[in-house]
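Recap from last week: sequence in, structure out.
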Amino acid sequence: MIFGYARVSTEDQNLNLQIDALEKYEVDRIFKEKVTGANKERPELKEMEKLLRKGDSVVIYKLDRISRSTKHLIELSEKFEELGVNFVSLQDNLDTSTSMGKFFFRVMASLAELERDIIIERTNAGLKAARARGRLGGRPKKNSSTINMALKMYDSKEYTIPQILEAAKISKSTLYRYINKRETKICP
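Predicted structure tokens:
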């Protein structure tokens, strides 16, 4: 099956140009949306993705109509490749059923992998530099006297949780983490 996807950013814009091009390509079904490119919620795109099967094709007027960003486009192209779905962009002369189209998307996937690797390298270098300066990372440990005070207040049942949190200057999750930690030590 050949699916078409058309999107414009505002209600004032119309989809006619894209729909005409998709109909000329003879798509079987067109999914239409009027939603800004920055919006992650695209119900029609999600619906189309649910219907995709091996051998299907997704046809769009232009690459920027289907993706919010380069990263999103790469994620979509990887998903289409995993499903065995061809991807066609009419204005960009791109068709993954051809050798050049497949090559283009493999290059894009390689760039995405390179980007992920660079992020990992930067993160590891930052952690190493922080450790060299004496920072170990992770959550900072709370002062044991502060935690003990909070636990005593909790055990006394004279204070509300908000009062304990305010007095100890800790979060609710921190308080409950220490309560649970204490209880697991008591009960083997």
